[in-house]
């Protein structure tokens, strides 16, 4: 059984390996890992998923990072984390998320979870220390998706 809870610890470094599954650039992850709210998914006392949600302004929150361990993917855990994050939002609030332009699995996942396209952050991944690839294609732009709660 999957348990979703808010991470209440002060030291989030234990979550770093999971956060790096969702965003491979350690500099980027370190820049935001201590911000916002963190939800964790646990199975048999093992943390298998994480979602980091930051407040952009009074009406917008952003999913900065979402990851599930490879052995637990495709079991609905990511969707449960997104649903739990939505429950913590104020009705009418806008939730946004960005993912790589060639990361078709992530795009499909977010569409299935109610997000819709609203923009592109051109050249976003050029700031990363090393190139990131999805489906054999180097990520360049970040595709932005949104939904209203």
UniProtKB/TrEMBL annotation:
Gene3D superfamilies, A to Z: 3.40.630.30
Ranges where the N-acetyltransferase domain occurs: 2-135
GO molecular function: acyltransferase activity, transferring groups other than amino-acyl groups
Keyword hit for Transferase: yes
InterPro entries: Acyl_CoA_acyltransferase, GNAT_dom
The organism's place on the tree of life at top rank: Bacteria
Pfam families hit by this protein: Acetyltransf_7
Keywords in alphabetical order: Acyltransferase, Transferase
Protein name per its UniProtKB record: N-acetyltransferase domain-containing protein
Organism of this sequence: Lacticaseibacillus sharpeae JCM 1186 = DSM 20505
């Amino acid at each position: 059984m999957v348990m979703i809870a808010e991470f209440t610890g002060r030291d989030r470094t234990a979550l770093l390996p999971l956060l790096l599954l969702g965003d491979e650039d350690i500099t980027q992850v370190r820049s935001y890992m201590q911000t916002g709210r963190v939800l964790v998914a646990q199975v048999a006392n093992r943390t298998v998923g994480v979602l980091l949600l930051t407040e952009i302004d009074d009406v917008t929150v952003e999913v900065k990072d979402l990851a599930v361990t490879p052995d637990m993917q495709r079991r609905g855990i990511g969707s449960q984390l997104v649903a739990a994050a939505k429950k913590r939002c104020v009705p009418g609030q806008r939730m946004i998320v960005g993912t790589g332009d060639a990361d078709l699995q992530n795009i499909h996942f977010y569409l299935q979870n109610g997000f819709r396209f609203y923009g592109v952050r051109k050249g976003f991944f050029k700031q990363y220390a090393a190139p990131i690839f999805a489906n054999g294609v180097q990520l360049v732009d970040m595709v932005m998706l949104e939904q209203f709660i």
